Amino acid sequence: MTTENVRVALVTGAAGGLGAHIARRLCAQGYRVALTDLDEAGAVQAAADLDPEGHATTGLALDVRDKNAFAAVRDQLVDRWGAVHVLVNNAALTKAESLMDISSESFDRIVSTNLNGAFFGCQVFGAYFAERGYGRIVNIASLAGQNGGSGTGGHYAAAKGGVATLTKVFARELSSHGVTVNAISPGPLDLPVVRDIIPPDKIDAFERAIPVGRLGRPEFIADMAVLLAADHADAVTGACWDANGGLYMR
């Protein structure tokens, strides 16, 4: 069971990539962490890698496109650890497609994961946190949602722009209930998903085009998420923290 000194966090899309980095940082900070993913086996393995004994982590299946799935995972975690305090909406899906060739099926698939998933997570856990009088929600947005994107696809850029707006909407709704809602907007990160999009023979030129001269570090994005999830981060809500290597300045 959880205590006043132990916080419980749920990270979506945590079987690998950025989500796994965020889960690792939270675990290192003493959180009990639920790593969730559409890939249940991957989530279970990622959780076991962090904590072989299974005391501080658990891996669970979660389809973020399904509002009821969020509620079911919430209830599982309350039964297991007594409460949930932090939600990190990280689950994402992208596909490099020419704008005019995006089909309605592809558009729906990308938007339902990136935007609907963040909405349902904020809605289900926002209500739960508000009832308890405390909670932290961190949404992972993207540089693509700020500048229109490029290789990530117009559907992904549109969805991530929506995530940034949802962050403000839920922050306003929940601010009087002890719940903060913030976003992090990374630029291209040094992750397999980015290297899969950019051909190996073009990665050097791509990095040179970034003002700081390199891909972002996912470990730092994880540090940002941990900071926004902290108890004493209560004065920050509705914010979008940029980490894009200087590609977008405001």
TrEMBL record:
It comes from the Bacteria. It holds the Pfam family adh_short_C2. Residues 7-187 form the Ketoreductase domain. Belongs to the short-chain dehydrogenases/reductases (SDR) family. This is SDR family oxidoreductase. It comes from Streptomyces niphimycinicus.
